[in-house]
Amino acid sequence: MAEIALGVSEKHLPGLAAYRRQIWERRLLHALVLFLVFLIMFPFLWLVIMSFKSDPDILAWPPKLFFKPTLENYTGLWDDEFPRSFLNSVITSVGSTVISMVLGVPGAYALSRAARRGGSNAMSLFILATRMAPPIAFTIPYFLVYRNLGLLDTRLGLIIIYLTINLSLVIWVMRTFFDAIPRSMEEAAWIDGASLWQGFTKIVLPMSGPGLAATAILCFLYAWNDFFFALILTRTDAMTAPVAVVNFLDYQGWQWGKIASGGVMVMLPVLVFSLAVRKFLVHGLTAGAVKG
Amino acid sequence: MFSDKKARRRSVLKGAAATAALGATGLYAPAVLSQTRKFEGTTINGAAFSHTFSAHVRDLIPEFEELTGITVNFQDQAFPVYNQQADLELSTGGSALDFVNITFIFSGRWIGAGWMHPLDDFINDPEMTPADWNPGDFAGGAQASLQDADGNTYGFAWEAGAMIMSASRSDILDEAGVEMPTTFDELVNVCDAIHNKDGVAAFVADKLHHWNWIPYLMGFGGKVFKDPPGDLTPTLDTPEAAQAAEFYANLLSSYGPEGVLSFTDEQALNAQLNGRANIRTQAIAWHTPLANSPDSKVKDSVRFALMPGGPAGNFPGSNSHGWGIPVGSKNKEAAWEFIKWVMSPDVQRRIAIDQGYSAVTRRSIIESDAYKTQMTFGGQDVASLYLQVLELGGKSGYMKYRTVPVFPQIGDKINKAIERVATGQQNGADAMAQAQDETISDFRKAGVEMDL
Fold it and tell me: Do B75 and A236 touch (CB under 8 A)?
């Protein structure tokens, strides 16, 4: 075919054959990537599709690929107690993230700059203690203390728990970022008359933007996705969205549509937030991976 | 002193006014609340899992509050969430809850560990419980899991499940010239005769084998434990257990619809509702939608019967959930007022008859004409089947196996063993022997005493 079209045989144009092979290889790779993406995304895609199906369509066999979409699962969520749980999730996640960052970032800076004085490594390890055991190990003590303090089923109680867990993460992650920033930058600012605090806020923090973003996202994700502590330490008033989704597993039958739409609603803010800051996230997570 | 007197007089006046108001508005004031305002001003906290019944209770709470002056904070959550939270609350001796649902599968643990308060003193005190409340009216099977080995009562059942059999497409049975099976042998013969007729699978079940299979195990003469709750030695490696496993696995693999081994309750129900599967043995709540659900395509052809029996007899599964009072509660008497009121014959009758709630536990209601009318489908008296199963469970106590704290561990092994047999990976004897070994190993780690 090529010989007819061009009037020459491929053996006279070895470069053309190689070019064609490259094109096919590229197409094959693209197809493979698309297939892998589809494979990875399929459970999420299925969840989203399910959230727009009516209950009979969800349970239909064989599964229906073409169906009349409905918003009843989403409106049903709105009529239920889900919005309050969603709000609880937002408040506890954002609250704990902000407080963790406000307390943890200066702490990390202090530990980073105090490294030469010794003892900071021991202090860092001590701070990490809250992450040295699985959450179940802390459950009963937390439950008993919270019951006595009247913190059960309160947003404040959850924020304190997430703060306890996330603070160590902030300190450990941010410390490595601050370690990578040369002290000479701050020293130059000090010579110019800046105070220690000004050096930190005007010089160091702006240079740590990607790290701050990545750390904040990790903190937010931990609090947002937490199920265990929210299950044990809340009842109705402070119940978060992940627990509310499980509440659709009724004794008399599972509300599949609401489980799916609730799942989508839980994923949505994380997805939007992560997309918005993905540039910082990738940069922040890979910073320091390659030493120049 | 003056203020006390004044407060008391105010209470009396308030009580009188409330009674007059109730009379004027036609609200019901049950006789069981002989000292209606005794606990006025008390707040009680209760919890249960989300259920049609708890929704009815929630609707009725304002009426109770108006009658008694007791404020009721009631939370209901999903079954797994409620169980987790209640277990933690009870196990740590908390006083946050004054009345709770005693979940069937946890009843052995919660009652056995002394976390629930015995109710006998309340029941036997005529000042607290009038004779017409009649605790003996509750069906024996429903109450069995709420009593300890000495017969002390820790709760009153508000919900009961009773395993029966349904055939969604009885027309296919008629065409094949077979009747509803009454024995295991007949069940296989019927399945043989009707399987894949009109594209309908003969048998369907959900994947909770440790509930569905046990009646077959007992029907063949087998047991889960040697003598529960006292002797928890597993007895899964017996010839009877192997035979029952082969029998039940054969029902699933030979007569079930495609994918039956992974069916949830809803999928099994849906298969029947749409007429894709015919016979199922399960709790009554999963059968009645076939006759009264708007989604049912088999309303005219569904037929109900007692679960078939085996060579050793008939052991249909039954379970129940009931209200109880945690031992840590600081308002036990007020909590009893609530339980007494919500489980009174009249409130129960209103929930059963006016609201159409079918899983009631008072014998007097199940045997009433109104309930029988409600539970008669196509001329079939399902109410009698229901009561029959509940009484069976109460008489011989064969459901005790399910209320012991370690049942979830052995149940998991049973599920896997049945799957292995149904998929042809192992024969019944090997699968059950493996389940036995695994259970013994788990029990040893958990420190369970066994007589091996």
Answer: yes
**pLDDT the model gives residue B379:** 87
pLDDT greater than 60 at residue B27: no
Same domain, yes or no: B94 and B19: yes
Chain A residues whose beta carbon lies within 8 Å of the beta carbon of residue B276: 61
Both B145 and B186 in a single domain? Answer: no
From CA A282, how far away is CA A290, in angstroms rounded?
14
What is the per-residue pLDDT for B3? 40
Query: Does the CB of A232 have a partner CB in chain B at under 8 Å?
Result: yes
Q: Among candidates B283, B258, B255, which has minimal Cα distance to B269?
A: B283
Regarding predicted confidence, which is higher, B2 or A210? Answer: A210
Rg (CA), chain A: 26
Interface of A with B in 31-70 (CB under 8 A): 56, 59, 61
Query: With contact defined as beta carbons under 8 Å apart, do B431 and B217 qualify?
Result: no
Give the pLDDT of residue B29. 47
Same domain, B41 and B143: yes
pLDDT in tens, A234-252: 988 899 999 999 888 877 7
Residue B10 falls inside a structural domain: no
- What's B324's domain CATH number? 3.40.190.10
| pLDDT confidence of residue B4 | 42
- pLDDT tens digit string along B357-369? 889 999 999 999 9
Question: Taking the model in full, what pTM does it have?
Answer: 0.77
Shared domain check, B19 and B135: yes
Across the interface, which of B96, B267, B271 has its CB nearest the CB of A147?
B96
**pLDDT over 70 (residue B264):** yes
How far, in Å, CA of A50 to CA of A44, rounded? 10
pLDDT at B18 over 60: no
Average pLDDT for chain A? 85
- Backbone phi, psi, residue A21, to 5°: -60, -40
**Do both B260 and B246 map to the same domain?**
yes
The predicted pLDDT at position B151 comes to 86
- Given an 8 Å threshold on Cβ–Cβ distance, is B84 in contact with A232? yes
ipTM > 0.90?
no
Q: What percent of chain B has pLDDT over 90?
A: 66
Residue of A nearest to B285 (CA): A252
Average pLDDT over residues A65-70: 89
Contact list, A256 vs chain B (CB under 8 Å): 266
* Residue B4 domain-assigned (yes or no): no
- What does the pLDDT look like over B140-182, one tens digit per residue? 888 988 988 788 999 999 999 899 999 999 999 999 999 999 9
Taking an 8 Å cut-off on Cβ atoms, the answer to whether A59 and B52 are in contact is no
| Contact with chain B for residue A244, Cβ under 8 A | no
Contact of B70 with B337, CB cutoff 8 Å = yes
Residues B73 and B149 in one domain: yes
Whether residues A231 and B85 touch (CB distance < 8 A) is answered with yes
Domain A73-286, architecture per CATH: Orthogonal Bundle (1.10)
